[in-house]
Amino acid sequence: xxxxxxxxxxxxxxxxxxxxxxxxxxxxxxxxxxxxxxxxxxxxxxxxxxxxxxxxxxxxxxxxxxxxxxxxxxxxxxxxxxxxxxxxxxxxxxxxxxxxxxxxxxxxxxxxxxxxxxxxxxxxxxxxxxxxxxxxxxxxxxxxxxxxxxxxxxxxxxxxxxxxxxxxxxxxxxxxxxxxxxxxxxxxxxxxxxxxxxxxxxxxxxxxxxxxxxxxxxxxxxxxxxxxxxxxxxxxxxxxxxxxxxxxxxxxxxxxxxxxxxxxxxxxxxxxxxxxxxxxxxxxxxxxxxxxxxxxxxxxxxxxxxxxxxxxxxxxxxxxxxxxxxxxxxxxxxxxxxxxxxxxxxxxxxxxxxxxxxxxxxxxxxxxxxxxxxxxxxxxxxxxxxxxxxxxxxxxxxxxxxxxxxxxxxxxxxxxxxxxxxxxxxxxxxxxxxxxxxxxxxxxxxxx
Length: 448
Hints:
6% of the residues lie in helices and 38% in strands. By secondary structure, it is mainly beta.
């Protein structure tokens, strides 16, 4: 055998060895397995930003909880409705009640054959959902059947995928879409109360503020509409980005103020009564100031006189009255953060579970979720993919994309790892002490 052939065989053997060393042979659980695999573009949400700056000091420290520290968490409450896709006007989750037995008490038939929206709503014993064909589906839990199914669109839009943004108020579903339509549908009387076509696709969540609707379009124009007619009350143009990215414009409301974060990375504080801009600040830390510049982040939350904004590299705490930055932290969030009393809870893009003091900006603890799982299950450490973070029964519930649930106590210690038999497709909601979600087959499940 020639020396060249021997060298090639050695190289091949080394490659095989490396591959096998990096493979997982964990048969104790399927927790590392990601059944809901992302596309290549989704595999790393922030990869497109890696070259924007040569400086990247991403927080990666393990910070143990101090021995005598005690959290003062608000009491858990019962939620009997879910009218906003982000739970309430502030986008912040409360500490919610859950019966916690884990028993499946309800499973519906398939409510649609098309792809469902990521978010579901709940009002007066009914689940409200939508699909990419533009169907609004109102499902009665008590009667175990579809109460109403309504489609606003004409045949010429039949082959266009619709992205519907929903919010509910007293039987009325307010809808904006990616075709530029805005309409109000009363599902109790099965009637469209009004409908407008504003031509430009809408691209944000919707907020209801007394007699006003607030939302924005893909050009980063912020609108105030009359809730009863759909007429424009105020248009506030902001910076337009040429290239559309995955970030969706986001709105939050607190104490008479509307906060608007656009795709350029600018945060606006607006007086709801006068509909005038009080302040604005740009939080896009890229060196590229071109209008095509992309911003990435999560939904903003407002609570305790502060706004929390996560970008592709930093987490900001800002004063709601002035827009000034109180703290700028070198970590970003995979999911929407949560404020409870004087604490911020979040999960970073490197899977660190962090608790932070809002008063002094101190990191109370920081733990590696993957390490916690591996230690708890006594298996080899890998990396899980996070879907959602919530506070339930005074505990941190972390939903994974492969339909596992991690239960951490408020001190950051893992207490349970549970697997759902039916894969979770929608964002989970908690209503009447029960967990509700849509599975991949578009069936409604209630777990008590």
